[in-house]
Amino acid sequence: MSHKARPQRSLTTEALARVEGEGAMRVEIHDGRVERVELNIYEPPRFFEAFLRGRRFSEPPDITARICGICPVAYQMSACRAVEDALGMEVSGQLRELRRLLYCGEWIESHILHIHFLHLPDFFGLDSAIELAGVNRPAVERALELKKIGNELLELIGGRAIHPINVKVGGFYKVPTRRRLLSFRPVLERARDLAAEVVALVSGLDFPDLQVEHEFVALRHPSEYAILEGRIVSDRGIDITEQEFPDHFAEHQVEHSTALHSRVRARGAYMVGPLARYSLNFDRLTPVAAQAAAEAGLGPECRNPFQSIVVRAVETLDVCEVALGIVDAYDEPDHPSVEAEVGAGVGHGATEAPRGLLYHRYQLDADGLITDAVITPPTSQNQAAVEDDLVRFVEANIAEEDDDVLRRGAEVVIRNHDPCISCATHFLDLTVVRS
Amino acid sequence: MRRAAVIGIGNLFRHDDGVGLVAAEFLEPVRLDADVLLETGEPTRLIDAWEGRSVTVVIDAIRAGSDPGTVHRIEAGVDGFPDGGQYTSTHGAGLEAAFHLACALGRAPDRLIVYGIEPADVSEGRGLTPTVSAALPGLIDRVAQEVRALCV
Q1: DSSP 3-state helix, strand, coil percentages of chain A (rounded to 5)?
Q2: How far is A46 from chain B (nearest CA, A)?
Q3: Which candidate from A66, A117, A133 shows the least CB-CB separation from B105?
Q4: pLDDT in tens, A324-366
Q5: How far is B8 from chain A (nearest CA, A)?
Q6: pLDDT tens digits, one per residue of A254-290
Q7: Above 0.85 for ipTM, yes or no?
Q8: Strands B111-117 and B55-61
Q9: I need a surface site. Which of A6, A118, A248, B78 has the fewest CB within 10 A?
């Protein structure tokens, strides 16, 4: 039976598996063309921005960390940097390096989880890492060991692995000794070796052919593969400070999602995350990671979302190298934090969460109380790009007659982006009604 | 072989879902001769926590369709264990997925016993409901007795 004999097809997944949070997918096909796709995010909105109002300037790092159990450090870092921007503070030197080191731990943990527990089973035609352990036990063992090292790094700098408690505006409550950090060096060397094995494993996978043309947006730093700070750049000419983010990007409500969609004001949909980061910052990778990327068959740009699994592996290797460099150069700072001088102001902070650019903005009054807060997480920025990928994938595979096969493929297209739906559902305009 | 462990898991910000953590706080490692650990239920951490132990007792909220406050006891491999199935995410992958993954990797404890209370309310918010609070002392006594008996 050809698709012409089936003018109407509908692919629906009511509860997406192996994504962070609760969402659904709906694809409607009419006369061989994709007429409508929706990534439905139905997880309840969480109103973080609303209940930050009236809180003290010192509270966003701990409150916003609770948005996500996978990437709390990203929320803490964007929050700290936005508040510090509002108060005119600069956190530099070894305190800045410790922040990067903490962030490296989160990247290791988050990337390894996504690669092995959420994404890799798709490439083996399996439903879970439990089944994967049956066919490739060393891969799952390696993942658990790397995940544990990521946890240990978070505990070492952040005080605990989930929702770290040692982070504050201005720096940390307590900093580790040089001896303590150096004692962790062999563990990081082990992580680097394991990460290189992960790159080798995922580079040998078969990748469906899909090239996307989204505008890539990521941070870029003069000398680092930007994680903690940088200018916001794109491959279509955006090159702005964090403070200019609201001038160039806008969020808007769509009917089928409790998460906002983001757009470049001048153009439309764009994409953040590993592919964008890698393609805009290939020349900032450590030599070890750049070499591994070349051996994995990646060029200086990667536009196939299925290959994001390779990019995540390369980035994991890169942060292991970065972490080793930070540990080697570490000198215990004289003070664990920079003192804040309370005053009115508006501050912006953007960092690279594992899933992509995470922007925070806070407005403070003269007493240091928050009068307005904006949080733009990577998943809401990527929603339009995910839907666009779905259209392209389904249209390219429209000849596939088996709806189950097509639906499974479409679900992988969503998982390519590692959407964190829990993070994205932070807003709902209850007054919007559309016909 | 590591000594026995009692692991309380749950989320204190979801009312009765925090019962495992609250119960574990009342158990004293010295008197039980067991490690007492608090966890979120994240699988990789659970596997690390119980690997190489003869006995692990997990305390958690368990929804089995009984009246709120009902105490359940399940022993893996004896009573059957809920299917880990296709976990929905790493946020949602819980005890079942952790146990089945550990079995696949040969990293499950010799005996895994799960105690749980049927929750009345797992919506967002702090504090146990009166029904579950009332059942808490009975749960703690049963866990303490079983751990002491197993560790003799």
Answers
A1: 45, 20, 35
A2: 10
A3: A133
A4: 999 999 999 999 999 999 999 999 999 999 999 999 999 999 9
A5: 16
A6: 776 666 778 888 888 899 999 999 999 999 999 999 9
A7: no
A8: parallel
A9: B78
